[in-house]
Design goal:
This protein has one domain. It has ten helices and no strands. The protein is globular. The two termini are 29 Å apart.
């Protein structure tokens, strides 16, 4: 029987459609397998897109491919967040972390949000009508199971909010802000300060440099013609900056996994 949520994908990418369908079937009975299938689904999507955008990265790990797609602007921040969430939770499942069903359901919903965008991207001009997500039906729950599910939902909401705040704290601009316009305004304002600096006999404030710092990520900034850093070196410096914040993020993700593991174990004991 075709999936209500993902059956439409069959005509655009049969393998991705099949993985999504399998994940949907496992969401209650085997949440770890559900997340494993969803991670494989996202990796298949990313590899297909990277072949169109940057084929030299086709053999890279999933995190590298997603970051490359986001930098190229083929992948929006919202879709990148959804794919990274599936990647992280899928990795946890692959490494044996018990997973509560509400986690698997959240990631299944993320996969559904991604599905329409993906089909429109790989088949340009396709008119894909994405229907509202329908959670697969499940057996009638006891009051204890309902309470455990509600606890899992509350935990997932908390984790997603913490991830969102962390992500936004690392960004200079919001999703819908016009970076070019803001950068232009900053340049004009800083040029005004340059005039004041000149009158005071002080060194110039480099307006263009400051605007670039605020408008670009580190790698793009270093590769800018004004600075002329070779791509390989720029990439290395950007990676070094990325590593500085990765430790803190990994510590937070480890705490999330512990909370989920405890909840999944409580559910297993009550079953």
């Amino acid at each position: 029987m075709a999936s209500r949520n993902f059956g439409f994908m069959e005509r655009y990418d049969q393998r991705v459609s099949r993985l999504a369908d399998q994940a949907e079937r496992y969401v209650y009975t085997d949440p770890e397998s559900c997340l494993f299938k969803l991670r494989l689904m996202v990796e298949t999507m990313a590899r297909t897109l990277i072949e169109l955008q940057a084929p030299q990265l086709v053999d890279s790990d999933l995190s590298t491919m997603l970051r490359a797609l986001e930098r190229s602007q083929l992948l929006s921040r919202k879709h990148a967040d959804q794919m990274h969430a599936i990647r992280r939770d899928g990795n946890s499942a692959v490494h044996g972390d018990p997973t509560p069903s509400p986690t698997a359901m959240r990631r299944l919903h993320d996969a559904h949000r991604l599905s329409g965008w993906y089909c429109r991207t790989v088949k340009r001009g396709a008119k894909v009508e994405l229907h509202a997500f329908e959670p697969p039906p499940r057996a009638k729950d006891s009051l204890k199971n309902k309470a455990q599910w509600a606890k899992g939902e509350a935990l997932e909401t908390s984790i997603e909010e913490q991830r969102r705040r962390t992500r936004e704290a690392l960004l200079l601009f919001g999703e819908d802000e016009d970076i070019d316009a803001i950068a232009g305004t900053l340049i004009e304002e800083l040029r005004g300060w340059d005039d004041i600096a000149i009158a005071a006999g002080e060194p110039l404030i480099d307006a263009e440099f400051v605007a670039l710092v605020m408008a670009m990520d580190i790698e793009k900034l270093l590769e800018h013609p004004r600075f002329g850093v070779p791509s390989q070196e720029a990439h290395a410096q950007a990676e070094a900056q990325f590593d500085l914040v990765r430790g803190e993020l990994e510590a937070k993700e480890a705490a999330y996994r512990t909370q989920r593991r405890n909840l999944a174990q409580d559910q297993a004991e009550d079953a």
